[in-house]
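Case study: GNAT family N-acetyltransferase.
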Amino acid sequence: MNITHSISGTGDHAVAVTRVSDTQWHAMEDDRVVGRGDASRRPDGRLFISIDAWHSAVFDRIADAMLTDLRTPLYTVVDEADHDSRSAWERAGFAAARREWGYLVPTDPQVTGLGSPRLPSGVTIVPAGEAEEGPLRALDRVIRDEVEAAAGWRTMPAEVLPRPAGTTVVDASKYTVARHFDQYVGLIRVAPLPRQPRIGLIAVRTDSHRRGIARALLAHALGSLHRSGTASAWAEVSESNAAATALFESIGARRVAATLELVRH
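Here is what the predicted structure looks like once written out:
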């Protein structure tokens, strides 16, 4: 593509911002890349952008170029504690739309108080890696449709990995499932990352809410991690999700970070 949008000086040398592909922009100074911009579309259709630049003037030039090329609304994600990044995006016209809490979740049942919770009548837990892929995919689709019809999928954690069109369950081995007789009714997805496992999703079908199924799934997943020698896991929860916030805080999870999703309309 290689379309140059602007040339501006940040010091002794000129900086040119060039769109090098549909989703990438480079800021060049003396044939050296001094900043990059990227755009990626989430599965829900929203366009998220990011900028990596050492100098604020370069950040602003890349932002100007991207905003010229891309249609709004545009979204980005920043650590709430990173005041410089937040200020840079606010200069570009972005404003906070939602907050996501980051929790450090203990796995020891002596700390969480979960132990072996009593399961509702007819409910059993299918351990990670043992769920039937067809019913699991069907459950995932039902839950996604229910979320979209209620709060909206945009309220789910902001960091969502790109997926092939129509694919919502990439690795079935990461899912633990709650089964009510012969029907899957709830799931929890845990990514076994090397430094710290991440709870990516915990959800139960609407018609099975308030039966303790989410708590039972969490107890099983955390118990498995504890037995493998893992002391804690990581989870993100939208500030607006009161039920999930209450669940994690009731088992001793500590709120240690916050991520802001910013939007420019």
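For the exam, be able to explain this: The radius of gyration is 22 Å.
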